[in-house]
Design brief:
- There is one protein chain.
- This protein is about 30% helix and about 45% strand.
- With about 110 residues, it is an alpha+beta fold.
- It has a single domain, classed as Ribosomal protein S6/Translation elongation factor EF1B (Alpha-Beta Plaits, 2-Layer Sandwich).
- A 4-stranded antiparallel sheet has the order 2-3-1-4, covered by helices on one side.
- It is globular and about 35 Å long.
- The C terminus is likely disordered.
Length: about 110
């Protein structure tokens, strides 16, 4: 089994319930194909570097997945036809960094560093 980090950018007008549905939908696809979701993170609404389909912002969802390459192919096939998504990216990694939370607010970081 390989380790992957998979990030999805949903449209900026997606509601929190829509984001939850997207997370559940793609988690089920992974689990149905004998993959394992190690961790999911909602990075929130962030500015995009450039306009994507007339959107200036996007809601980021990040998955840490343990699975075979066939599962990623199935996942990306479903994401390519989903109208709620702007982009997706999958990166194969050697090990997961489960400790660092890169998108926490600055106040949270100050509390953990003291």
């Amino acid at each position: 089994m390989n380790l992957y980090e998979h990030t999805i950018i949903a449209r900026q007008d997606a509601s929190p319930s829509d984001l939850k549905q997207l997370t559940e939908k793609y988690s089920k696809i992974v689990e149905k194909n004998n993959g394992e979701i190690i961790k999911t993170e909602n990075w929130g609404l962030l500015n995009l570097s450039y306009l994507i389909k007339k959107n200036k912002k996007g809601s980021y969802l990040h998955f840490k997945i343990k699975c075979d390459g066939k599962v990623i192919n199935e996942l990306e096939k479903n994401e390519s036809i989903d109208k709620k998504l702007l982009r997706y990216l999958t990166v194969r990694v050697k090990k997961f960094d489960l400790d660092t939370n890169y998108f926490s607010k600055k106040d949270d970081l100050d509390k953990t560093n003291k």
